[in-house]
UniProtKB/TrEMBL annotation:
Segments forming domain GFO/IDH/MocA-like oxidoreductase: 134-246
Domain Gfo/Idh/MocA-like oxidoreductase N-terminal: 5-121
Molecular function in Gene Ontology: nucleotide binding
Signal peptide: none
Protein's name according to its UniProt entry: Oxidoreductase
Length: 360
C-alpha cells in the first residue's frame, strides 16, 4: 500500500475537514505542504497541524513538493485554474464543490485528465455513506420496485452577515446561490441515486438577501426512468433541514439530516396494508460508514492504489453540474431544459448564469 504525498490548497475553515480526514488516514497519506495566498494564515495553519512546508504560491509548491494528491479548499471561482494547474503538474486532485462554474470549464478539465492520465474528483461525500451506497444497490437491482416519486429539499438559513464575505453572493466568485453552493450535495445524491435526468423546469428568486444570486430555487425534474421529482433549495429557512424521500413501488426510503448522515438519519417504510418481510430484510444497514470527507478520501486512495477512475470523478459528476445549469437556464428563460441541450454556443454553457463571458 502506497503512502501518498498530499498538499492542501486553501487553509480556511473547510480545510479543517480535509485535514481531519487525512489524519484518520495517516497510514495512507502524508500532508507535506499547505498553500494559501495569505501568508499569516497558512503559516499558522501549518504550525498548528505540524505540516512541514507552507507556500503562498501553488506553482512553487508543485515544483518543489511534487505531491501525489492536491486537495483544493478555496473559494469557488479559484477552483478551475487550480485544478488545471495541479493536473498538468502530474497530481491527482480532490476539489471542494463546485469543481467550476460552467460546463465549458468542466469539459476542459475532462480534456486535461485525458492528456495527463490523472483524475479530478469533486467532494461529493454524500455518495459514500452506507445508506446511500445500499440505496444505490437496491435501485440498480429494483429490489424495492421502480422508483416513482422523489423529493429533495435543502432548506437552510444564512443571515445577511453571512454574505458580507466579499466572494459570497456574486455570480463571478460564488457561481450561484443555494442551488450551486448549498443544495448541491443533496441534489448530487438525489441525481446519482435516480440516474439520468431527462428534463427540468424551475423558478429562482432573490427574496430577502441583498445578493446578486438567488436565495431560493424550486425545480421539477423528470428522469429517464420516468421518476418524477421536486427540488427546493433555500437559505431563507429558520428551521434548517435537509430532506430526501424516495417512493418506490414497494417501500419509501427517507433521509432527514442537515450537513451529513449516518445510519440513524435514514427511515424505511412499507405500506401499512402490504407489509412484506422479504422487502424489509433488504434494508439492512450492517455497517455505518458516514457521509464524510474521510469516507470519500479513503475510496479515492483506493482508486489511486489501483490506477482506477475515482467514484466521484469529473465525468461522473458532470450530470449534476449540467442539471444545476439547467435549473438556472430554465428559470431565466421560462423553458423546460432537456439534458444534453446546453452545448457550446449557448451562453449557459459558458457560465451557469448565462451572463458572463467564458474565461480565457
Amino acid at each position: 500500500m502506497t503512502r501518498y504525498r498530499v498538499a492542501i490548497v486553501g487553509t480556511g475553515s473547510i480545510a479543517n475537514h480535509h485535514l481531519q480526514a487525512l489524519n484518520e488516514l495517516k497510514e495512507r497519506a502524508e500532508v507535506v505542504a499547505a498553500v494559501d495566498v495569505l501568508r499569516e494564515r497558512v503559516e499558522e495553519f501549518s504550525k498548528k497541524h505540524a505540516i512541514p512546508h507552507f507556500y503562498t504560491d501553488i506553482t512553487e509548491m508543485l515544483e518543489r513538493e511534487r505531491p501525489d494528491l492536491v486537495q483544493i479548499a478555496t473559494p469557488p471561482d479559484t477552483h478551475y485554474p487550480l485544478i488545471i494547474q495541479a493536473l498538468q503538474a502530474g497530481a491527482s486532485v480532490l476539489c471542494e464543490k463546485p469543481l467550476c462554474t460552467s460546463l465549458a470549464e468542466l469539459d476542459h478539465i475532462l480534456a486535461v485528465e485525458q492528456q495527463t492520465g490523472k483524475y479530478c474528483s469533486s467532494v461529493f461525500q454524500w455518495r459514500f455513506g452506507t445508506g446511500g451506497q445500499l440505496l444505490k444497490h437496491l435501485i440498480q437491482t429494483e429490489g424495492l420496485g421502480r422508483p416513482l416519486v422523489g423529493i429533495c429539499q435543502t432548506t437552510w438559513f444564512r443571515n445577511h452577515a453571512y454574505y458580507e464575505v466579499p466572494w459570497r453572493g456574486k455570480w463571478s466568485t460564488e457561481g450561484g446561490g443555494p442551488t450551486m453552493g448549498h443544495g448541491i450535495h443533496a441534489m448530487d445524491l438525489f441525481l446519482w441515486l435516480l440516474g439520468d435526468w431527462q428534463e427540468v423546469s424551475s423558478m429562482t428568486s432573490t427574496l430577502d438577501r441583498n445578493i446578486e444570486v438567488e436565495d431560493v430555487s424550486l425545480a421539477m425534474v423528470r428522469f429517464k426512468n420516468r421518476t418524477l421529482g421536486s427540488i427546493v433549495n433555500s437559505v431563507l429557512s429558520p428551521r434548517e433541514e435537509t430532506y430526501l424521500r424516495f417512493d418506490f413501488q414497494r417501500a419509501s426510503v427517507e433521509l432527514t439530516t442537515l450537513y451529513g448522515y449516518t445510519n440513524k438519519h435514514w427511515r424505511f417504510s412499507q405500506p401499512g396494508s402490504d407489509q412484506d418481510a422479504a422487502i424489509q430484510q433488504l434494508w439492512q444497514l450492517t455497517q455505518d460508514q458516514p457521509a464524510s470527507h474521510a469516507t470519500q478520501i479513503a475510496q479515492l486512495l483506493d482508486s489511486l492504489d489501483h490506477g482506477a477512475e475515482p467514484l466521484a470523478s469529473t465525468a461522473t459528476v458532470r450530470p449534476t453540474i449540467e442539471f444545476i445549469t439547467g435549473i438556472y437556464k430554465s428559470a431565466a428563460t421560462g423553458q423546460i431544459v432537456q439534458q444534453g441541450s446546453i452545448v457550446a454556443g449557448d451562453p449557459f454553457y459558458n457560465h451557469v448564469s448565462g451572463q458572463l463571458a467564458p474565461r480565457t
